[in-house]
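Here is one chain, start to finish.
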Amino acid sequence: MKTLTRKWIAFCVLGMAAILFAPAAQAATLRQSLAHLQNKWAVVNYRMTSKAQQERAITALAAQAARLARAYPRRAEPLILQANILCTKAGIENDISSLDEIEKARALLLRAEKINPRALDGAAYAYLGWLYHKLPGWPIAFGDDEQAERYLKKAIALAPNGRDSNFYYGNFLYEEGHYAEAKAALERSLRARARPLAALADAERRKEAASLLRQVDKKLL
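Its structure:
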């Protein structure tokens, strides 16, 4: 009886451990998957020079991102990453069908916002603001600078010292002619904390922010 009792206690302890540690293990797996996709995206976006090679790689990456989003339907991060990859795919393909990719990306970001607007330092808002700013308006697409500014300010509110939130807001301010404010935002982007799980994307974003900051400084002379 004592042996049976000990076995039952051991079984219960193991069962409780599985329940307690399963969410942590799933979170770690998700972080690794996100980092893997983020780094592969950075290679496609920043390092590949052949358009044909980029098209093949980004198509495969979009499929991987979609699978990850399906595996974690209650998490915003895979949706944000999938949307970013689709936007990159649209930019590489650069044809009429690209608008379908952009519309799908917007829908993914809006879903991510509903799940967790704070995910990835408010990246859903930053990317939505970027899309609304860069795209043409109706009847071609949904571009709208007032809406873009609202989303970008939401991203800044959630991540006042974030790398991407300040980069996209700084770019918007620069293109709107608000150079002093753009300079401040880009300097915050450059000072943002490093993101070890997205080291390549982080390094390239810093280069972009530094390059844009030099253009801003010329305007301020």
